[in-house]
Amino acid sequence: MEGKFDIADSIHVECEVGGELNVGGQLVIGEKGVVNANVQTVDAIIQGVYEGNMVATGNVEIAATGRVSGNIETDSLVISKGGFFNGNVVKKNGRDGKAPVYLVEDKRAGVQK
Length: 113
What we know:
The chain is mainly beta. It has strands at about 1-5, 10-15, 15-25, 25-30, 35-40, 45, 50-55, 60, 65-75, 75-80, 85, 90, 100-105. The strands form 2 sheets. Strands 1, 3, 5, 7, 9, 11 and 12 form a 7-stranded parallel β-sheet that branches. It starts with a strand and ends in a 9-residue tail after the last strand.
């Protein structure tokens, strides 16, 4: 699908989408999703492939299966272990400095004897 999409609420993408997305809630790009678009959203969870420029007023999370190429403007970016990000991140609120970037470690409970 290609075009300009205005979504009032949240959306979960499991297909190929290109163009422009304006999402009023949360954008979830599932593991089978491929989005090549400029995006404005509140929150984003990227489990598939995203290419483009994104502005998020809330949080952006790149999951372990996520692949992102492009620029992100947000207050919070979390990249899970295994996730890929190639681009720039800018703090959304306009203050000097970069947005915080967190690497989420794969923490597993140890086996106790």
